[in-house]
């Protein structure tokens, strides 16, 4: 397998864990409301806080994320996402889960855009559409495989297990990410040139 394919597979896996993490909370609703003895309105806040955090981090990140090496940026975001997802699996109260979900998506909200930026920078034009298709296929795989698999794990154990497994997958992808994603700083010099003009 070529380095390019390993890079794309790694990005697809982290995208898969991110999308599955985003979608898994809704079907876990009955278990969570029973476990924490919360109202539907409180569960709705738990679901929406993920989106609010993603929107906030995406908006704020748009102003400064291109000032950094894309490799360092994606590793930072993926590490924060992995820690946050793993922490969700060990939350013992509603409020702690609310906090860990918010932290998770503060990192995850920027990560999706960075993945697409890396594909755009690392893959030549003639292969970019195929590469984008491979990475974006993670959305479909997350829906068709990821969510049912996580629900199966929750049935075998409890609601903590899907987050622990997804956090573990996210941690495992950090190794190939650090090896196969090249340093990407060309966009920084282009930005500096444009500012001088």
Description:
This protein is an all-alpha fold. The protein has one domain: MFS general substrate transporter like domains (Growth Hormone, Chain: A, Up-down Bundle), CATH 1.20.1250.20. It has helices at residues 3-24, 29-36, 40-61, 70-88, 94-122, 125-156, 160-180, 186-196. Helix 1 crosses helix 6 and helix 1 (3-24) packs antiparallel against helix 7 (160-180). The mean pLDDT is 88.
How are the elements arranged and paired?
Layout (H helix, E strand, L loop, with lengths): L2 H22 L4 H8 L3 H22 L8 H19 L5 H29 L2 H32 L3 H21 L5 H11 L1
Task: Describe this protein with a few key phrases.
single chain; 197 residues; mainly alpha; Growth Hormone, Chain: A; 8 helices
Summarize the structure.
With 197 residues, the chain is mostly helical.
CATH superfamily: MFS general substrate transporter like domains
- In round numbers, the mean pLDDT is 88
SSE class = mainly alpha
- What percent of residues are in strands? under 5%
**Main sheet overview:** none
* Whole-number tally of structural domains: 1
Instruction: State the separation between the terminal residues, measured CA to CA.
Output: 43 Å
Helices and strands, in order, run as: HHHHHHHH
List how many beta strands DSSP finds. Answer: 0
Measured as a percent range, the helix fraction is over 70%
**What general outline do the C-alpha atoms trace?**
globular
Unreliable parts: none
